[in-house]
Amino acid sequence: MRFETKLEILCIIAFLLSPLGSAFELQVSDGNGVSESSTDVKYGAAAEDSVDHHVKISPAEAEIANSYFGTGSLPYATITKANTAKGLSSTAYRSINGKPKYSTWRYDWGTSTPSSSTAGTGVGTWLNLDVHNAYSFSGGSYGSNAQGDYASTTAVGSSPSGVAGASLSGMSTSTNAFTNSVISVLSANMGTGSSHVWFDSSSKNKEGEYAWHWTDAYGTTANPAMTVSPYISASAQKSSVSVYGYTEGSFGTKALLRTHVEDKAKMYGHDGTYYSGIGEFGYQKSNYNQLTGSVSAKADASNVYLYPSVTVPSYRTAYLLDPYRYEWVTKKGYADWGYDAFYALMGKQQAVTYYANAAVSHSRVGDMDNYYISTISSHMGPNAIEVTRAADSDRVVTGSELASMFTKNPQGLIYLDGCSSFKPSATSALANAVKNKEWLSAGYTYDVNAKGDNLFMSKFFGYLANGYTARNAQAKATTDVSNSLGVSIVPTWTPSNHDFVLL
Q1: Where are the alpha helices (DSSP H) in 349-502?
Q2: Residue 19: predicted pLDDT
Q3: What 8-state DSSP symbol labels residue 44?
Q4: In sequence order, which residues have a C-beta less than 8 Å from that of residue 482 and are 6 or more positions away?
Q5: Residue 73: DSSP 8-state
Q6: Under-50 pLDDT residues of the chain
């Protein structure tokens, strides 16, 4: 059925009862010549299910509002507001795979005309959603504008086949699109899923900045995953994007906060000039321990930024710097040690911050001293570390600079992973900047093979995360690289009478 009307209000109430099952689709659209709202509603009701449906239309403002409640399933459907003259669009959507009669749901959604002090009127959609005992659900909103900005937020929950164990309470989302920006937000009281439940936000723009965040939890049929009071947001505008995620508590066999940001900042490699900056944060809890915290992130034309806020002991912090990732991994296909180490350490419940390519700067090398585990893999000599960030007037961190940066003693592990970083015999300017200030420091007294070194670092952190001490992890990784590539990678450790193991 399709309804198009110039009446001020149109209300439709549809109750569906069918002896053999039924299906129902309703399309409504209205516009005032400038902007247009439309909704496409689908129901997949079984014999025992019912639907109560109300539609309200305001033609003068080109607005539509709907409210519904019922049982069973809701096939994917949308509500949209667009202004084609301005190139604006906003959409809210929902989808529920439910068990007949057993699964219940209630939601309402609508369109709006938001106002901005800098961009005038825009277009918006909103959705409120409650789901109980479904096989799966998804709901969210997204929007875009003519200059290429995009932002979205979504909630998803699922259960194993045949298990109606996914629920969502008090979810509210909205997306507003203006000529100069797009903003999307989502919050809920609680989400659960026997397989998983996650809350995801993302944003991007035409200039190549991109960001996403998810709050994710996995569970079992006997003990579903649960996330309490999630809040996520995303925004995009010219030359800038951002995301944010928070949870009061997330529980599951595995629960995590993940955030990724990237840009097209200029970087200098040894083989060419590239345009890439990456930032990544991850923190994980296991065995239904409570995960609480937030992460905000931003990417702009010149840099990426991560601002995690999680309560962890100092020995649960890790920091990875990978300035030559584009050249070594993307271009040459070497082992992706940075992400391998990221996932290995996150699996050990470390709060891991990772920067790559142009995102590695002088100041971020100095930040290594604030973490229990830290490493940088780069081109190095005995007296300096190279970084690729083009925005720095000097892309070299000297040993004396490093010594002034390293003033703390977190009793952890620091690894200067680069050729000749500890030459000669661990008394180089770089080695002297870090040794005896950490529990265990590592570097090289010779020119290492870069392909072998990337593979070694991937293997080393894998073994470290599996309970091996640093020295034993080195021995295992050295054997793996020798067998695979026929090269030897043996770091020098200082002090020589200590070892390190992840707690």
Answers
A1: 362-366, 399-405, 429-434, 450-465, 470-485
A2: 35
A3: B
A4: 488
A5: B
A6: 1-22
